[in-house]
DNA sequence: TCTGGGGTCCTAGGACCC
DNA sequence: TCTGGGGTCCTAGGACCC
């Protein structure tokens, strides 16, 4: 039986989430901005049609935005995460095997589902539209890479009604289609590889599909070799239906305003290490080290530039916020240099292991470990029920003048009691 | 004035061991 | 005077993704 993998991808996900609570913006040009209102990260179709590119700095677009009446929102991650969870659990009902690939995308295995897959995919679309209000497109094909491509075709060709099933096409029809698609559109082929492929005379998806896999392995790596196999309908990538623990946890942010003060950086680093430790405990893991990172604004070419990172190994794996903050501050003071205008700081946890795999030694202070565990659990419980940051380390500070800007954020309609959407009586 | 944040995988090269 | 070769582990950096 031919494999059938579906990729369901939400259309302009963040914009669609905002429109859910602002139906008046249907058909109007809308964007959602990254942290600090820095870049454009989600665009409605109307904005794409105006030619605005993904990830462009928002301040450069202000003129264009005014001319066309583009409505801009700061990103509201609580809202998007909540709606994403609803979409994913509804999708789970359509297949025994699901891989949640990103906040707005999910693979579903439709192999063996006794239905016309094009109609089945239509049903998925209608259900999501009706029950949640989020528009999606669906691509179906014998491999994940082809399913991504089929989804791309569905998105670019409105006359298909949001669904494209490669399994329903002949080899000839597929090749004609592939000849007209740029190789850059293939999942896993980025800007660098596109340049190199073009130099080799490979421009279309069809060109790539017909290149011997061995040749790509020699010129690139196994990654590109697998891509070609997948384009030829040989599934190399399985569906990962269990979410693996993170191997690294990053928390970093740009500041709302530049700062030269060590005290500002200290507060930021404590705040980030605190968030990272929370994520670590959420997946019941311990970390072996914490890396601290600071940098100036690389776009301000005339300013003096500095960036430095340092990895602080921990004497033993831990998930204790206090130990992580202590190590992070130590590292920060080691790399901090006065006289620079810093734009960003971050921490990264590495060497992550499951808490159950904590190495026991003869000299372990078991009592201290138990106390730490109890304290962290209490901290997490309070912050979960009373709101993030209710209890925190003093080092995080209260005067967060460096914190990011979110000037256009909408309400957290679905996750905060005080901000629930209410229908007028 | 103003340019995001959080991940994964792969490879090359160095350290170390026998 | 003369100084191998192969394996493993770790890390940094590149490329890519959303």
Can you offer a commentary on this structure?
By secondary structure, this protein is α+β, with helices and mostly antiparallel strands. Helix content is 38%, strand content 20%. The strands form 3 sheets. A 5-stranded mixed beta sheet has the order 5-6-1-7-8. The radius of gyration is 24 Å and the shape is globular. The chain starts with a strand and ends in a 39-residue tail after the last helix. The protein binds a DNA duplex (18 and 18 nucleotides) through helix 8 and strand 9.
Helix content: 25-40%
Instruction: Compute the number of strand runs.
Output: 13
Number of discrete helical segments: 14
Number of domains: 3
Overall radius of gyration? 24 Å
What general outline do the C-alpha atoms trace?
Answer: globular
CATH-scheme architecture of the largest domain:
2-Layer Sandwich
Uncertain stretches of 5 or more adjacent residues? none
CATH superfamily of the largest domain: Reverse transcriptase/Diguanylate cyclase domain
Label this structure with key terms:
425 residues, alpha+beta, Alpha-Beta Plaits, DNA polymerase, domain 1, 5-stranded mixed β-sheet, 5-stranded antiparallel β-sheet, DNA-binding
SSE layout:
Elements: E1 5-10, H1 13-20, E2 30-33, E3 40-43, H2 45-49, H3 62-68, E4 71-74, H4 77-91, E5 98-102, E6 105-109, H5 117-131, E7 136-141, H6 144-156, E8 163-165, H7 171-179, H8 191-199, H9 205-209, H10 213-219, H11 222-231, E9 249-259, H12 262-282, E10 285-296, E11 307-318, H13 321-335, E12 342-350, E13 353-354, H14 366-386
Parallel strand pairs: 2-4, 7-8
Antiparallel strand pairs: 1-6, 1-7, 2-3, 5-6, 9-12, 10-11, 10-12, 10-13
Helix pairs in contact: 10-11, 12-13
The structure holds a DNA duplex (18 and 18 nucleotides).
């Amino acid at each position: 039986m031919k494999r059938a993998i579906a990729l369901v991808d939400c259309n302009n996900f963040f914009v669609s989430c905002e429109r859910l609570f602002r139906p008046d913006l249907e058909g109007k040009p809308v964007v959602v901005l990254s942290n600090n209102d820095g870049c454009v990260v989600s665009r409605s179709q109307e904005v794409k049609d105006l030619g605005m590119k993904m990830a462009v700095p928002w301040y450069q677009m202000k003129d264009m935005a005014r001319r066309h009446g583009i409505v801009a929102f700061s990103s509201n991650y609580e809202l998007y995460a909540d709606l994403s969870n609803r979409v994913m659990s509804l999708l789970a009902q359509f297949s025994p095997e699901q891989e949640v690939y990103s906040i707005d995308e999910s693979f579903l295995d439709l192999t063996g589902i006794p239905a016309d897959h094009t109609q089945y995919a239509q049903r998925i679309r209608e259900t999501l539209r009706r029950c949640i209000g989020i528009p999606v497109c669906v691509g179906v094909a014998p491999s994940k890479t082809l399913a991504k491509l089929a989804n791309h075709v569905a998105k670019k060709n409105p006359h298909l009604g949001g669904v494209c099933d490669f399994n329903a096409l002949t080899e000839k029809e597929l090749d004609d289609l592939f000849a007209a698609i740029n190789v850059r559109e293939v999942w896993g082929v980025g800007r660098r590889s596109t340049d190199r492929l073009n130099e080799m005379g490979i421009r279309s998806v069809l060109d790539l599909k017909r290149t011997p896999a061995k040749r790509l392995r020699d010129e690139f790596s196994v990654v590109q070799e697998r891509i070609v196999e997948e384009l030829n309908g040989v599934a190399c990538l399985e569906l990962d239906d269990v979410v693996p623990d993170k191997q690294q946890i990053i928390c970093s942010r740009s500041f709302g305003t530049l700062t030269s003060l060590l005290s500002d950086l200290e507060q930021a680093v404590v705040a980030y290490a605190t968030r990272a430790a929370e994520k670590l405990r959420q997946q019941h893991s311990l970390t072996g080290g914490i890396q601290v990172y600071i940098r100036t604004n690389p776009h301000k070419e005339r300013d003096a530039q500095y960036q430095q990172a340092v990895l602080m190994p921990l004497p033993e794996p831990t998930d204790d916020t206090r130990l992580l903050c202590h190590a992070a501050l130590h590292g920060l003071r080691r790399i901090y240099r006065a006289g620079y205008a810093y734009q960003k700081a971050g921490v990264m946890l590495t060497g992550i292991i499951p808490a159950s795999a904590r190495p026991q030694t003869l000299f372990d202070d078991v009592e201290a470990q138990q106390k730490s565990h109890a304290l962290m659990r209490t901290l997490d419980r309070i912050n979960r029920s009373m709101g993030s940051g209710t209890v925190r380390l003093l080092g995080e500070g209260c005067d967060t003048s460096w914190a990011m800007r979110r000037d256009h954020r909408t309400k957290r309609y679905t996750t905060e009691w005080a901000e629930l959407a209410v229908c007028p009586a």
